[in-house]
Amino acid sequence: DYMSTGNKKSSLNPLELEVVNYISQGMQYKQIGMRLNRSEKTIEYYAGKIRKKLAVQNNSELLVKVSKKLI
């Protein structure tokens, strides 16, 4: 389950889950960075890690995959 915080390689950690939540709310990386007290570039890096873990190419695919998991 990639939404868990288990030890599996594809699991998202709590910070990554928070980033996904903010992306799902339509927030820009700069806004997310301000919210999490991190730079926009750091959030871009986190988003890239998340996409790689979930084997998606972009944030649209990320949101589709996450929404399917929640249904």
Account of the 3D structure:
The protein has 71 residues and is an all-alpha fold. α2 crosses α3.
Rg is 11 Å
What is the residue-mean pLDDT, rounded to a whole number?
87
The number of strands is 0
Order of helices and strands: HHHH
Helix vs. strand class: mainly alpha
Main sheet record = none
User: How many helix segments?
Assistant: 4
Helix percent band = 55-70%
Low-confidence stretches: none
Strand residues, percent: under 5%
Outline: globular
Topology (elements, then pairings):
Elements: H1 14-24, H2 29-36, H3 40-53, H4 59-70
Helix pairs in contact: 2-3
Short overview:
With 71 residues, this protein is mostly helical. The radius of gyration is 11 Å and the shape is globular. The model has no long low-confidence stretch (mean pLDDT 87).
Notable characteristics:
mainly alpha; 71 residues
